[in-house]
Amino acid sequence: MMVVQMSQTVRWSRVARFVGRVIIFALLLAGAALALFPLVWMLSTSLKPDSEVFKLPPSWIPAHPRWENYREAVTLIPYWRYTLNTIIITALVVSGTVITSTMVAYSFARLRAPGLSALFALALSTIMLPTSVTLIPTFLIYRQLHWIGTYLPLVVPSWLGGGAFNIFLLRQFFLALPREPEEAARVDGAGYLTILWRIVVPQSIPALTAVAIFNFVASWNDFLDPLIYLDKPEQFTLSLGINSFKDIYFSHWNYLMAAALVAALPCVLVVFFANRLFIRGVVISGHGQ
Amino acid sequence: MRAVLERYRVPRARALASAARRWRARRDEAIWAYVLILPWLIGFVGLTLAPIVATLLLSLTDYRVFQPELTRFVGLQNYRTALVHDASFRTAVRVTAYYCALAVPLDLIAGLALALLLNTRVAGVTVFRTIYYIPSLISGVVLSLLFLWVFQPQFGLANALLEALGLPRQQWIYSTRLVIPSLALMSVWGVGRTMIVFLAALQGIPTELYESAQIDGAGPLAKLFAITLPMISPAIFFNLVLDVIADLQIFTAPFVITKGGPAEASLFYVLYLYRSAFEQFRMGYACALAWLLFLAIMVLTAIIFRSGSIWVYYEGGRR
Amino acid sequence: MSEHHLVREYLSGRLSRRAFLRRAAAAGLSVPAVSALLAACGSNNKNANTGNAKATNAGASNAATVAGGTTTAGQRFKGTVQILVGFGTGNAPAQIPVQQELAEAYMKQQPDVKIEFVRVPDSTAAQQKLTVATAGGQPPDVVLPAGRYGVYLFVDQGIWQDLGPRLAQSGVNLDAYPPNVLEAIRATGYYPQNSKAAIGVPAGYHVHVMAYNKELFAKANVPEPPHKWDTADWTYEKQLEYAKRLTLDKNGRSAADPGFDPNNVVQWGMGHFFPEMFWHGFGGRHYDPATRKAQFDTQESIGGLQWASDLVNKHHVLLTDVLAKSQGGGEGGQAFLWTSGKVAMIDMCTCDFASFGQAKDFKWDIAAMPKGPKRTFAFLNVDVGAIPRASKQQDLAWDVLRFFLIQQPNASHLILDSYGAIPPEKGQESKFAENIKGKYPNLDVQVILDAIQYCSGANEDWIPNYAQVNQLTGKHFDVIMLGQAPADSEMRKLQSEAQAAIDDWFKNNKLPTA
User: What CATH number is attached to the domain comprising B280?
Assistant: First the structure.
């Protein structure tokens, strides 16, 4: 009797789980439509000829999709030059951030030293000051260093700790890790760098991936710093280049959208491949549902 | 006698030796701690602290951006003007606080809900993860321009949706009443970062916890509140602090979309600050505004940190 | 493509110079013939009365220079000149070749000089760049072209070099420029009335006219508005009367009929009109430099704003500005409804042909703006080229600016073919009108030529605390136009706030004595 009841329960719960998964899938699908509609709109606008961009009511599917818009958008401005510049800057920024913020966050999370917690509070507080105001004093400092007109103001800060945001994020993650493996390694005489590299980092792949993604996107899309610090058009980044289709009298939305979409592609690819790292991270730590 | 002394001396020597060892270990730890944070320390002192101190000093003057030689020291006058005399300042504070009260919970709940959904073994979950992160990849300016279309009263998507549901059309960002909620709604498209952080945190919860809860007969809601939320509380804490800090400083969307209107109904704090600095060239006043914001954020963050000791649970033990 | 087509495409900016040369060659034209064509396009002013216009045979020499004339007699310069572009137009891909061309021509004559264009996406970015760079000690040497508003923001910061003396010395005949346009460079109010100070050199202007949909007028049996400016009975009241008959709800009732449903309007009599126009037409203004008092609470100012508000909220004939804001940069929302034939009358700028001018589905024409109780007022957009005082190459920067904006045929070539604006020198506006006529043969371009007398940039005149007062104005005008408050009380509020800002300015600043 009990056995029969048990298998019935098992079957029901399997059905319930399946139905649950279907509901979740449906929800995710609906949400995906909402999440993607901006992209769909950008795509649709990017394919419209000038005359159709301002048609009323606006159409989702352009009557005569104009794929030449893409060719024109990337030839009217030195698009590939800008892309190369942006790649160089972003690669430097991401590597610098991941490496230095890991070191700093580990210290704040695990190590003790006089004055360390005060410094961390100080680090956190730097996120809270709006950048518009520190813009001019910062510019003056860079001018003293003769860094204006170079990539240095854009790249160097990421090699100096990568910013309080990343430090804060990694510190939280490191704090959540079990201490035992690290303490055991300490007892065995391992140095702090070894512990960091061999024990902490492998457990933090999801978090490190997150940091990499965030900083990739932030650097790729950054507009204000390239605007202020770069002077020569051959140094410009994509974000500056894309906006050049805006004019005070008539903005070419179709070119702008085409350029913006092409510019967003690398970010999408990075996120997609980074997702693999999430999964691998899951496998290593044996967690997850 | 010798024996008695021996009995005390050896353990004491050993105690001293181990105390020395411990002291050396702590000294090594302190040295390493500072070595590891050295990059940040250099950057902080050179590139961060100096400008911050500069803005503090500037806030006590009426700094002339283009004619620095005419600058005069005015003490706390800028602060007094802001807090007592300036009606736009009060508007800015009100507008920004209202926005945060809407946007922060919206972001946390949406981010957590999505992360929970995406942490399941549903078909195509990797693809979905990418899809949900994509909107936050679109540059803020482009997204803002898109939402100008969405909120178009005449033929925008938002009103089209309302009409399809049989609801009355709204003025959205052109209504003094709805402009803030509209912008808060728009901020949901930036949920990617929050979602990713929650996802990473969820991945770190050991499955054994759920298994044992299952055996104890816990249902999904109980599992959520008893296991999931406490285990990811550091991530909730992180997202909460960052959301508050970021939303109090929101700039791009109001700058591109509403420009503070209609009739100053969306005059966000940093927008007002930016205007004071770059359009009215009242740099000293702008610095004072920045420091007032800074103080407000510090106080709020301190409150959140304090409360954190009650509800945040760190597996690693210490604070 | 025929030669005629090629030239037209080139002049309208749709063809770059390189493309023009390529296709001309493909069309079998020889190099001398092409350069002659280019010279003919460029040097359209054979009677240049500027000092050093040596009519170089640009046609006979190689096609690389269209620019004629020389630099300041014999003087050699050395250095790099940075030109900041982005305060107004000038960065669209089609506009860049002409600017490059002039830069190259100058560098050919001054081999030790390098001209660099620093291009930023929009006027906000330009403002930021100018502010940070100047405060940091590395300002651009020239800002060109810059809209009046952007330039005036910086006037009381002492950022612009006073080019008055240089203009006087250059021998340019400023009497040949329309007085309304010259107003833009005088910053009257900051500088005394009738001073010879100049914060820039005019770099083209645009006038506003009224465009109307002929078919909607015909359908409603309304007589077309007059094309002649300052016609006796073409007043605001008349315009309102027409607008009422031209505003229809979904049941076909006009705003003049009883039972009109203002919540379901499908066609508007008026669109894209701004309260500032009516404000000035009623005789209102914002500031009197003599008394240093704001003028928002005068009967004229209040009357003008109330009229504008009533157009929207009482008579329901004016399509609100809400739609105009729907696309950052450009007039997207209003343009939609105009080009789809839903609006009968609009305020159209000669800079709006790329958007409003694209109405292809119906017949339309342009007419004069109606007269207000005190004057006929239409907007005037003026661009200037300016030199920051902090630039380290004052003389060189001036020479470059002179080469671009005063030297003919460079100036007209730049303004017509790159900026697409009306060159300020008398006689040049006909070239602009010809271009328009070429593209829009059905328009009465005489309206454009007559407009300059009645167009004014008064709404952008200098006022102490320029940015703040303008923002306050915007805020209160919004409230009035949204119908949230009557003009009377709101304008009085604006007056007290604006006056406080003005008084504050005088407490901390002084007017220049020049």
Answer: 1.10.3720.10
